[in-house]
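Page 42, continued from yesterday. The earlier attempt failed because a stray header line got pasted into the input along with the sequence. Redoing it now with the clean sequence only.
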Amino acid sequence: MNDSRQDYRQFIESHPRYPPKAEDRHAGIAQHAMSQVNHGVLAYYLAFRKAVTLETLAQQM
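This time it went through. Structure tokens are written below.
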């Protein structure tokens, strides 16, 4: 009986957890949120650069 319990524990420990632990899931959520924020900042920056470029072109004409 004790032998099979040991085998079961080794099997559980050697296989990845599913569902993932809460810490892993939270890390994934935080990572996703940060990438969303980075995309927003990048889009804002590019729009700003485009506006500045158009403005300088208009002034040069």
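Notes: The mean pLDDT is 82.
Reminder to self: strip header lines before submitting.
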